[in-house]
Amino acid sequence: MNTTINTVTPQDYLNLEATIREQERLLTVELFDDADAWELGQTLVRRIQEQSIDLAAAIYRPNGTLMFAYLTRGTGVSNHEWMRRKFNTVSACGHSSLRAWARWKSSEPTPLIDQLAEDADYAVCGGGFPIMTADGKLLAVALVSALPHAQDHYFLSEALADWCGTKIPSFDQTIVD
Q: What does the alpha-carbon distance between residue 114 and residue 90 come to, in Å, rounded to a whole number?
């Protein structure tokens, strides 16, 4: 009988963080207005329907104003709460919530991420993604909730790549617990 134990190292988490950082670099925009939020929202809805999954999706301005929301029947208040917490994480860190998680799981978490991981108003897990300019200005935050957190990130980053018309690197989801 052959049993293999998959041991995840701190370096694996740092590599995951680097992959997500590259996704964020590739998924930048020049502008993001209400029409863009509607178009991205429609991309999210189309992909949710094509995959026949229950998922909550939202897009917020950096000040917390809702730009777009869609919740399937199998989602509810708890998903909205998770998205609120993921929004807070992305807003505080300036990058995706899964990237914050990868840094937290590595042997080199930042003091900010350590603090956020302990605060009930934040969620250091996948499903929140910044919509930014190439020079790092936060224009909006896209969010999803209802899948396991690595799948939340995967769904959201792939939908953003579809909307932006670009390819992004993927990562081994088995290292994300």
A: 14
